[in-house]
Amino acid sequence: MFYIDDVITYFIFIMIGFVIPGTLTVWNLYNCIAKQPKKEKLISCLTIFLGAFFYLLLFAISFDTAGEWYEQIKSAQYHNSISSAYDGILWIALLGFVGYFVLLFVKAEKLPPLVSVISISLVMLLNVLQITYALQLSKNISGGTYLLYVYHFNILLLSARVIHLNMKQQIEIFQNRTAEIEEHKGFKKFYEKINNLSKYTIFVFVILFFIIAFIEIIFVIAGQGVDAPIKAFTDTADWTFSKQTPPPPLEYDGHYLCTVAAGGHKRVVKPLRFGTRRGETIIVNRQLCIANAFEEVIQERLPLFHKKVRYAYDTYGYPLSKLITNPWKADFIYFVMKPLEWLFLCILYLVDLRPEQRIKNQYLWQGEK
Question: CA 50 to CA 62: how far, in whole Å?
Fold first, then answer.
């Protein structure tokens, strides 16, 4: 049975997800192929601003992002898709939109040549970033979230359209000026060369190179490093280009200290794989497997003693694990637990016939039932 609130909700979802984005996309496609585009500036602005609003709304509904890769979050949540330590690339995207609106609202004949080329270069850089971000999301895109790509497609479409128009206007300007200065052979040859679209495109890429170099210098001055644009995508967890291993989800209530320590720096804690226990997928390293195997042996042979140990560990281990909020603290706990790890391993080899097999069997490999 439907209630009025349900009807309104479905109506809003359909409008946001299909009708408005679909209409704007079709209109943009029409303006790209039509000899006389209709309301191009208005539709372009609506696409960018209204599309951005719908994009952020759909993203917020689809992905509950709750922190940086080194922070503990709930299993149903996601870590940030762009590292906040390198979010300076968002300013590059903003400059790209500024360049787009300059080309959209100002005719080529009224733009200084260098401003025109810089604007085109910034728009191209914007599209490099937005395509990279679309790929960053691709790992978790499914179902209705594919609608996010409608916005990425429209940005690419609008960018190609505005760059094509600007270059076309520039060629017309060069042709007119060539006719005006027919008597000056030197200038005539110069404009004939610029009239060649491929040469003009090369000029754009030269300017683009210098803009990228300038941006890299700014990142270095700001203390973010030359590779900041790359790290913005790789210093993350849960996404396509992510290179970091996050700490286990907050719901997990097993070997707290060993589990959290597995979220330290890879070179230190040496994560082996993802493992599943009690329905939760966590990072597994050898220290964690040894601790779990040791507890399993104690539980089998000394059940009453195991209950007391488990109670004490639950009482003090879990509150302590909540204080481990970054990789450096996790590394420290990993080293603190090392003597216990060696003790557990010695006991396993003393009492168990196949200690390594028991260690290996701890935590289901991801995908196993």
Answer: 18
